[in-house]
Design goal:
Elements lengths: L1 E2 L10 E3 L2 E5 L5 E5 L5 H6 L4 H21 L7 H17 L3 H12 L30 E3 L17 E3 L2
Parallel strand pairs: 5-6
Antiparallel strand pairs: 1-4, 2-3, 3-4
Helix pairs in contact: 2-3, 2-4, 3-4
Length: 163
């Protein structure tokens, strides 16, 4: 590629007379010879069969990796590229998408353990229990205290703020 070195920009961008001129994000202009390869040739020519196969693996691998990447709690693009590479290798070995998904999820997704919590009333020796049932831990001032019936089952302790 030839770099445009003049102060003023080139007279055109695009392709003209076999020369393609374009600007990169760095602001510099570059020129190169127009390629003889067309999209039609890439899609039909036997010479590009492996290229098309590889592109298909990249497409499928990135789809698999993207489904798992969305489930990650912390996003890091480096991890996504790593997952895509491993998915492509799996496809190259002939593994199915389900097997690759299972392998990648085992490796990258955090294990979520189901913890069944049983609500056990907390009994403190220093403060007397004044209330027996409230759905959550609450702080009640002394002037707002309510006495609940004794026939209800205890849930959680209510802490009282002393004034």
């Amino acid at each position: 590629m030839a770099k445009w070195v003049r102060e003023e920009p080139p007279p055109f961008t695009g392709t003209k007379d076999g020369v393609t001129v374009y600007q990169l994000p760095d602001g510099l202009y570059y020129a190169r010879m127009q390629s003889s390869i067309t999209g039609k040739r890439i899609k039909k020519d036997k010479a590009f069969a492996n290229f098309r196969r590889s592109s298909g693996r990249l497409s499928e691998g990135s789809r698999i990796a993207s489904q798992l990447y969305r489930q990650l709690p912390v996003k890091n693009h480096k991890v996504y590229r790593e997952m895509t590479g491993k998915a492509i290798l799996g496809l190259k070995e002939g593994l199915s998408a389900e097997v690759i998904t299972a392998n990648l999820s085992r490796e990258y997704l955090p294990v979520i353990k189901k913890v069944s919590k049983t609500v056990v009333p907390v009994v403190r020796k220093s403060t007397p229990r004044l209330f027996k049932t409230l759905p959550f831990k609450t702080f009640i001032r002394k002037q707002n205290q309510i006495k609940l019936p004794d026939n209800t089952a205890p849930a959680k302790e209510v802490m009282i703020l002393r004034e």
